[in-house]
Structures are given as structure tokens and as C-alpha cells.
Specification:
Layout (H helix, E strand, L loop, with lengths): L1 E9 L16 H12 L8 E2 L8 E11 L5 H11 L4 E9 L11 E9 L13 E2 L6 H11 L1 E4 L15 E12 L2 E8 L6 H13 L7 H8 L14 E7 L1
Parallel strand pairs: 3-10, 5-6
Antiparallel strand pairs: 1-3, 1-4, 2-3, 5-9, 5-10, 7-8, 8-9
Length: about 250
Amino acid sequence: MEKLKCIISYDGTNFSGFQIQPKKRTIQGEIEKALLKMHKGEHIRIQASGRTDTGVHAKGQVIHFTSTIQMEEQNWRRALNTLLPDDLRIQDVKKVPASFHARFDAVEKEYHYIIDTRAEKDLFRRNYVYHFPYKLDMDAIQQACVFLEGTHDFTTFSSARATTKGSKIRTLYHVSCNPRGEDIEFILRGDGFLYHMVRIIVGVLLDVGQGHIAPNQINVLLEKKDRTLAGKTVPAQGLYLYEVAY
């Protein structure tokens, strides 16, 4: 038996999220279908660093699985990519110790969120950026980013529909907002993220940029631990799981 760690990328547009669901197209479902063929009908379950929602993309999602097939790492990548659809790719495969776990061994995740501030929506980017054609105060947003860094209870920034039990305390090591031409890229790196946390944070930062919230109000939102005080959850298509560190 060998345990394999894979770095995978996917265009989330036509997937109903990562987790397998009956009668729906999912990333987990497509990978397990490919593994089923390779293992001649034997079902192989994969484990991921975390789930992503419908429409969310990934450049560096990580999964692991155990197999009885003996094969070179590069051949695993080629074999799986031959069986996978064009919107899902295996970027790298490494053999890892039996104790490795894609979720529980992750120490840091990095997400990027991209908005397009052009006056007119670009038809060909509609599935990959959030069109937000409004004037933003970038200095105010950067000030607000600083208040989000560190260890906090992020209940206010977690979906009310979250099913996760336990502590809502997380540590964000880096939060920034960077102009890229007429795009703006938000980068968040931390030890873990709650359900919809990145998308809610970006929504609040856009409110700051429009002058609806003062940057130092972030502290108040964190202290109140009340999701209803934060603004809307921005759409999924601008979000990318960029990297997972171990």
C-alpha cells in the first residue's frame, strides 16, 4: 500500500463544489471515478485539505489517497490526467508517509479573491472574477486589513448556515488588497478558515472601501460575534484556493 499526496487545480464553474453529492458533478466525484477505473472497480476514497463551494476555483488544493498500485509519481499524474475532465488537473503527485493527512496536517492556507472594477462587465471573465465597478478607497481597505490580522474569534465573518461545531477562533497571518491594473486582488493567509469566511471578509472590506464602514470598525465587528452585523457574502466565482502548506 502506498499513500499519495496530490496537488490539484480546478475551474469550479461547472462543479457543484468539492464534496461528492448524489447526481451532481463534483471534484471529489470526478477524481474517485478516475481512481475507480484505474483500480478496476475498487472504490478509492480521497481526502482533501478542505471543501470548496460551488463555483469556487483552486490552484493548489491538496488531496491524499491510499492505493495498492505501484507506480512512479510522474506516471500517476499522467494516468489520472488522462482520465480526468479538462476543468480538473493533477499538478503534482508525491508519495508520503502513511501518517500524512491532507486536512489535519495542513498548517496554513492561502486564498485569493479577485474583483474587476472596470465600468463594463467582461463577458469572458464572468466566471472568474467578481465585477464590482465602484470607486474604492484603497488606503482605507489596507488599514482595515491590518485589524483582521492576528488571532480572533471570527464568528461575525462565518456563515450563519455553517454546520461546523467548536471554536470559531482562527489566526490570519496575512491580509492584503493589491491593485492589478483594473483588477483588485485580495490575499488572505491563515491557519484555517470558517464557512464563507473569506467571502464575508471581502464583502466587509468592500464596504470599507466605499466608506460604509470605518477601518477601525473591524474591531467592533470581531468583538460582537454577530454575523448579521457584517455585509453580504460576495459571489463564489472570484475565489481561489491558492496554496496549502504543510
